[in-house]
Each structure stands twice: as structure tokens, then as C-alpha cells.
């Protein structure tokens, strides 16, 4: 007699295929979840690393800003000290300026010129005197230009008096002393106020 299988084998095969499909689907879903999780973790690690680098740079920038501020204050102190040193050097140079001026004037005044008045205001000397000729005045201006102490000789007036002796003419001249501050007291005050 023929063997007939009456069990529902088709349903069992279909159930087996269905279970296999669900298993594959779960495996693929789990695999995709792991792939998405791995990619997400990778990019999150990249973002966290960049944020950490940004924070490091911000901290370093703050440190450099503090150092720049310190450098600015040091530069200001250095400038104030240089002003003070400059004023002290000018005071040192001008300490013996009276004797230096008289010594230099004795050297530069040629024969034929007679000084009647010498007045110093700051670093300007006003000379008043008499001259036998304009050539003597020109020689004196040349000597002033060659001088180590004086500069900028500017004749202000040359007057010949008709009633007096025609041999002598009155002159006024302005001469600048090299290396002196015009108003030394103001320079000292400014230098010492700038340092406080």
C-alpha cells in the first residue's frame, strides 16, 4: 500500500520559512542598528574632540590675552622709564650749561663784535651787541653753525644809528643750544607724571 503523509507538511514548511525570515529580518535590523550606532558614535567622538580642541584654544587665548595685557603695562612702564632717563640725561647735559655757553661764546665771537647783553630763556640765547661790520656778524654766524653747542643762529635785527658813530651797528641775534629741552621743568613734570 502506498505511504501517504497526511500531516500538514506544507504549513510546517511555511512556518519554518516564516521563522527563518523573521530571524534574518531581526539579524539585519540588529546589524543595521549596530552600524548606525557605530557611525553615530564615531561622529559624536569627532564632535566631542573638536569641542575639546576649541575649549583648549579658548583657554590658551585667555592666557595669551593676560600676557598681552602684562606686556602692554610693561611697555608703558618702559616708556615712562625712558622718558625719565631722557630727562635725567638732559638735566645732566644742562648741569654745566652756563659755563659751557660762556666758554663757547668766547670761542665764536670774532674781533670787531662786542656783546652788551646775553639772556637765556629755556634753550634759546638772545644776544645783543655791537658790530664793526656785517662781515664780522657773518663770520660769527658761520662759527655758530660749526659749533658743537649752538645751532640755528638767527639775526633778528641789525641797526645802524645815524647820529652815533658810523663804525658800530647794533644787532640782536637768537641762538639755540643743542640738546636742551625748551622748558625743562615742564618736561620733568610730564615725565614723572607719566610714570605714576
From TrEMBL:
Transmembrane helix recorded as keyword: yes
Keyword annotations from UniProtKB, A to Z: Coiled coil, Membrane, Transmembrane, Transmembrane helix
The name this protein goes by in its record: Pilus assembly protein PilN
GO biological process, one term: type IV pilus-dependent motility
Entry keyword annotation includes Coiled coil: yes
Signal peptide from the UniProt entry: none
Matches recorded under InterPro entries: Extracell_DNA_Util/SecSys_Comp (IPR052534), PilN (IPR007813)
Protein source organism: Thalassotalea euphylliae
Domain of life: Bacteria
Coiled-coil ranges from the UniProt annotation: 64-91
Amino acid at each position: 500500500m502506498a505511504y501517504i503523509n497526511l500531516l500538514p507538511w506544507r504549513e510546517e514548511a511555511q512556518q519554518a520559512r516564516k521563522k527563518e525570515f523573521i530571524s534574518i529580518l531581526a539579524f539585519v535590523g540588529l546589524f543595521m542598528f549596530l552600524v548606525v550606532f557605530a557611525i553615530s558614535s564615531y561622529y559624536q567622538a569627532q564632535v566631542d574632540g573638536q569641542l575639546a580642541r576649541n575649549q583648549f584654544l579658548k583657554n590658551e587665548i585667555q592666557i595669551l590675552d593676560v600676557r598681552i595685557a602684562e606686556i602692554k603695562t610693561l611697555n608703558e612702564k618702559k616708556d615712562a622709564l625712558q622718558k625719565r632717563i631722557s630727562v635725567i640725561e638732559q638735566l645732566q647735559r644742562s648741569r654745566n650749561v652756563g659755563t659751557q655757553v660762556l666758554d663757547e661764546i668766547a670761542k665764536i665771537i670774532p674781533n670787531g663784535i662786542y656783546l652788551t647783553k646775553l639772556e637765556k630763556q629755556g634753550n634759546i640765547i638772545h644776544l645783543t651787541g655791537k658790530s664793526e661790520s656785517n662781515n664780522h656778524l657773518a663770520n660769527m654766524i658761520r662759527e655758530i653753525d660749526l659749533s658743537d653747542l649752538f645751532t640755528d643762529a638767527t639775526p633778528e635785527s641789525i641797526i645802524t644809528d645815524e647820529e652815533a658813530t658810523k663804525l658800530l651797528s647794533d644787532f640782536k641775534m637768537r641762538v639755540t643750544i643743542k640738546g636742551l629741552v625748551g622748558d625743562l621743568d615742564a618736561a620733568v613734570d610730564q615725565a614723572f607724571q607719566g610714570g605714576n
